[in-house]
Structure formats: C-alpha cells, structure tokens
TrEMBL record:
Signal peptide: none annotated. The keyword Protease does not apply. Residues 234-298 form the ChlI/MoxR AAA lid domain. Gene3D superfamilies: Magnesium chelatase subunit I, C-Terminal domain, P-loop containing nucleotide triphosphate hydrolases. This is AAA family ATPase. Keywords: ATP-binding, Nucleotide-binding. Residues 24-154 form the ATPase AAA-3 domain. Pfam families: AAA_3 (PF07726), AAA_lid_2 (PF17863). The keyword Coiled coil does not apply. Belongs to the MoxR family. It comes from Xanthobacter dioxanivorans. InterPro entries: ATPase_AAA-3, CbbQ/NirQ/NorQ/GpvN, ChlI/MoxR_AAA_lid, P-loop_NTPase. GO terms for molecular function: ATP binding; ATP hydrolysis activity.
C-alpha cells in the first residue's frame, strides 16, 4: 500500500493494524491526504468490497443501513441493503451527521449488525469502518459522543507529507493520468486476513509486559500516582475496552515485525493512537493547552517498564 499512499507510512501502518486487530479507525486530517484512496487501495489488495459515504446534516439512518421497499406487484416489502453492507466503509466527515445517523453507525460498529423494521441483518465477517474528521472546519458539526469514540480501536492524526514524498506524489499522479496504473497483483483472500488475526492473538505477551500495559491504562485513571502536576488534568481515563484495544494492537504491531512476542516498545508506539480519544481532559487542562497527547506522552515517560 505504501506504493500508492505516499508520505503516510504511519497512517498505512495503523490502518493495517486496525485490520489485523479487527477494529475500526478514526482518521483526523485535512482534506486531500489520501484517506479515501487508502480504503480503496486496501479493498483492492484484499478480495472485498468498499464504499464511501459522505456524511451530511440531512443524512438519514436509512441512507446508511438501507430500508424496506414496498413491492406493489405482490404487496410485500423487500429489504434494500444500504452502503454499510460492505467490507470496508469510509464514513467521510462523520461529525457532520446528526445523532440518529451516528447511532445507526454505532450499532453497526459495535454489534456488526443493523436493525431495520424490527429485523436484524448481519454485516460481513470482514467489516471495518474508517471514519474521518476535518480538524479545520468545525461549523455545523455534531461532536462524537464519548461512547462512540470508544468504539474506535484507533484515533489516527494524519499530517502533511514532506517535500520528498510530495514530489513522488506528483510523479505518481502524472503516471496515473497517462494510464500507468500501479499493479497490485492478485488480491488476498479474506481467509488469509482471518488466519493472520488468529496469529496476532496467539502472539506471546510476557507477564511483565502485560503488567506494564495494565499500569499504563491505570495511570490514565489515577494520574496523581505519577506526579502532583497531573492532578486535575483528567475527567475520565481509558475504559477496559481501551485495555483490550492496546493489547490487540500491541500484538499486531509485534506480528507486523515478524516477532512471536510483544516487547514494551510495541505498547509504547501504539499507545497514543489507542488512548488519545479515550482520555477526557478537564476544562482546566484544555484552558492551559494540555492535550490528551501531551498527557499520554507524560505517562509514557513516567510509568516504569518492568
């Protein structure tokens, strides 16, 4: 994927980790940073379907999930599946949709199913939602509630590429305009992904590393144990779902490096993206310009390893 998504190696890595850890991803970045292209490239690399949904204030839950269509010829109703019934779903500018639409997506993300007219329909076994937020323009948006944020395995912040990468992007776009498409080869079967997930879960985590992971999550809830200057910074720490997410992502990070075991560095590298949206800072901390990223960085420096 790095061949067509240039200048964003960290984003590509975290997207692959989300697939391996069987979770959803929230990507925050300015427009034009290849978020849509990343999902399409992933769907081409794996034998599956993808769909982009543009979230707008007038979007209805049925636009996402589908609806029952009346058939006058026999007087029956037939369920017309919505765009959420795809393997990879890009929810573009998710915070522009009203609460009812976000609630419908929350059920799909959490339960891997949708309910329409009292009937429940299962979603594909391979199912990933990548939602995007534009950090620049916030007018007319509906902030995501903490319960929905917690459903995202990872919260990734995407920055602009450097000059060298942007030069390569220009050359790639010119080549595509001239019909020089990137060859992906044969797509992977979905069973290959499921097998990889089983290997990820089987990756060994020694007890000291597990203890370090647990203490790191505990520190988000009781930061005063690691310094008086951290008192009053956090309203809520990470939930147990955050602990599970950190465990799975650390294993996936180790597996991606062809290791059969997890080391503390795997936990540290992935901790920011797993915890930043699960830690709610106080108004006083926000007024002082202390972000959740700053807070997590401090914890990584102070929570002892082993």
């Amino acid at each position: 994927m790095n061949a067509c998504i240039l200048g964003q190696p960290a984003f590509v890595e975290l997207l692959l980790i989300a697939v391996l850890a069987d979770g959803h991803l929230l990507a925050e970045g300015a427009p034009g940073l290849a978020k849509t292209k990343a999902i399409k490239a992933l769907a081409r690399a794996i034998d599956c379907t993808d769909q982009r949904i543009q979230f707008t204030p007038d979007l209805l839950p049925s636009d996402l999930t589908g609806t029952d269509i009346y058939r006058p010829e026999d007087g029956s109703f037939r369920f017309q599946r919505g765009p959420v019934f795809n393997n990879f779903v890009l929810a573009d500018e998710i915070n522009r949709a009203p609460a009812k639409v976000q609630s419908a997506l929350l059920e799909a993300m959490a339960e891997r199913q949708v309910t329409v007219g009292g009937v429940t329909y299962p979603l594909p076994d391979l199912f990933l939602v990548m939602a995007t937020q534009n950090p620049i323009e916030q007018e007319g948006t509906y902030p995501l509630p903490e319960a929905q944020l917690d459903r995202f395995l990872l919260h990734v912040k995407i920055d602009f590429p450097d000059v060298a990468a942007e030069r390569e992007i220009l050359r790639l776009v010119r080549g595509e305009a001239q019909g020089e498409a990137i060859e992906f080869g044969d797509p992977l079967a979905q069973e290959v992904v499921f097998a990889a997930r089983r290997e990820v879960l089987a990756t060994h985590m020694a007890e000291p590393v597990e203890e370090y992971l647990l203490q790191l999550v505990q520190a988000t809830r009781r930061p005063e144990l690691y310094g008086e200057d951290l008192i009053g910074l956090v309203t809520y720490g990470a939930s147990p779902r955050g602990t599970i997410a950190l465990d799975r992502c650390a294993r996936a990070h180790a597996w991606r490096r062809k290791r059969a075991y997890v080391v503390p560095e795997d936990v540290q590298v992935i901790a920011r993206s797993v915890l930043r949206h699960r830690v709610v800072m106080t108004f006083e901390a926000e007024a002082d310009g202390v972000t959740s990223d700053d807070f997590i960085e401090t914890l990584l420096a102070r929570v002892p390893v082993g």
